[in-house]
Amino acid sequence: xxxxxxxxxxxxxxxxxxxxxxxxxxxxxxxxxxxxxxxxxxxxxxxxxxxxxxxxxxxxxxxxxxxxxxxxxxxxxxxxxxxxxxxxxxxxxxxxxxxxxxxxxxxxxxxxxxxxxxxxxxxxxxxxxxxxxxxxxxxxxxxxxxxxxxxxxxxxxxxxxxxxxxxxxxxxxxxxxxxxxxxxxxxxxxxxxxxxxxxxxxxxxxxxxxxxxxxxxxxxxxxxxxxxxxxxxxxxxxxxxxxxxxxxxxxxxxxxxxxxxxxxxxxxxxxxxxxxxxxxxxxxxxxxxxxxxxxxxxxxxxxxxxxxxxxxxxxxxxxxxxxxxxxxxxxxxxxxxxxxxxxxxxxxxxxxxxxxxxxxxxxxxxxxxxxxxxx
Length: 375
Description:
This protein is an alpha/beta fold. Helix content is 43%, strand content 16%. Helix 1 (17-28) crosses helix 16, helix 4 runs parallel beside helix 5 and helix 10 crosses helix 14 (322-331). It is globular, with a radius of gyration of 21 Å. It starts with a strand and ends with a helix.
């Protein structure tokens, strides 16, 4: 019997926390029973395209985020769902456009329309406020609701019931230590054994607060002169250049390494000595789960949901106080937690737990509605 096919609706599938979570689940489900297909809102090459296709997934790319042509988008959605009556379950991760695709899916007879909240706030720019307005209607045509944390669910769904599904990762992959891999990557980055390598993983955007991160690191350098910082992630090239200019302005020189988007993230956690996350807001950041599973000491803004913490070496610090960050970091024990993987599993952050919950949901719902249409 062929697997059921579940449609994952995304902005696109570039390297980001939400996308990484969906891919973690996709790798972990039993694909002989459940296959994922993807509907994008951009028609462009994406970071995960090749892996999705290698795993057996189909990708459909719409153009609405490039041409802003809503009538064409609605026409394309109707044509897509009419051509694909096999989808009994869609899982929407893009709240801003859910008011469109959920409504069209409902009218085309898709019985199960699940939504997923991945964040706790919106960026304060015009795009963020438009996203807030459009996302306020995401809830209307949903039949089921998931969220990465309690705060994320309350933000998007209000008083409607929802299921909290932690952002699971492959804990074994991130907990594995490889001294040779660490030495090779630090050598590639030009980081010596005597230097302390701090790390950050996140796209270059307002939410991730790279200006604050660089100011924090400048304060750290006054206390720990041998500190280095590696920044992983992509984004608008103009914004990246702006952050490079700020690093120079702060006198950080080559102590900051702009490493771009990498596929071997677990190797970078091996190379790091500590992890920094001063985001303005987060849902439940996958990168923080990864860093903790790797055993790294983590220094995190108090704006990040405390539900993300499961290891003993995580420190929540006031967002606007660089000196407090520097003092805490300078005084901290930067030893890795040897029991991090066990703690991650116990807290429900192993992807096999998350994938098991979703696989059961997809299969039960598909079976329910397949039975209903049988004579």
